[in-house]
Amino acid sequence: MLFRELAARFGVVVTITEVAVSEATVGLAVGNRCISVGHRARIARPTLLALARSGVEYISTRSIGCNHVDVEYAESVGITVGNVAYSPDSVADYTLMLVLMAVRDAKSMVRRTDAQDYRLGETRGRELRDLTVGVLGTGRIGTAVVARLQGFGCRTVTHDSSPATDTDQVSLDALLELSDVVTLHTPLNADTYHILNRERLARMKPGAFVVNTGRGSLLDTRALVLELESGRLGGAALDVLEGEEDIFYTDHGGGPIGNELLQRLQRLQRLPNVLVSPHTAYRTDRALGDIVRNSLLNCLSFARGK
Q1: Of 244, 245, 264, 293, which residue is the catalytic one?
Q2: Per the confidence metrics, is the pTM higher than 0.85?
Q3: What does each C-alpha distance from 283 to 100, 195, 237, 247 come to in angstroms?
């Protein structure tokens, strides 16, 4: 396990548990000033208060985003929350794969050939050099996506509320109206929740594609389902999903479908032009090593007063 291997290199003694952090499991943290949690760990106020009372002063979340932790409340009870940086190439590479699969109708082709049907499909692929790709969010990952797209000769337009690059920045409405593909890389917060809502999805070009490797709640899933089922949008490729914590990383095959989110997901997956993967874009050897290493370094820096 990466944690044990890297912790030994840093001279750190770690306690590892598969149990999710909650009020009921806070006892596992007693005696530790620092804990490290994954991106799926929802840490609400009662749990934060219990952690503070148990002596925890620092939470290192193994993710870029902190939307699963009530950061302001954590600070009010004496807990500092830190995130990690990791190789942006992991998500950027995966994003390009999803973009290419979407515009080449890869899902339908694979389904046909898996069934030994080798006829050509009715949908013709599109070449990236003929398309405009809108990149929403130009942080480390969004910028890496833009750099990759340039090699394909397509036009890229970007939008970021606080642009840090010299990319072709346009308004959000202009990006939606110009783009044949829109890919999401902005952090999730109160301002970006459902940034692609029903009204904005309706502004997209007919036949356009949506790619999301950011956070599920950047996208209004109900509205997306309706746009796709109506045939107005060309398709979607989603590595993240609203409410994914209750679905992803678990085998739901053969079980009853009582979960509303799972039912909506199945509506998406029945569509031939929708690709879904279980929040795996970040999962490369290099990125996982970065995540664990930087989470440990965060804790060490805090313990040393840095």
Answers
A1: 244
A2: yes
A3: 19, 25, 17, 18
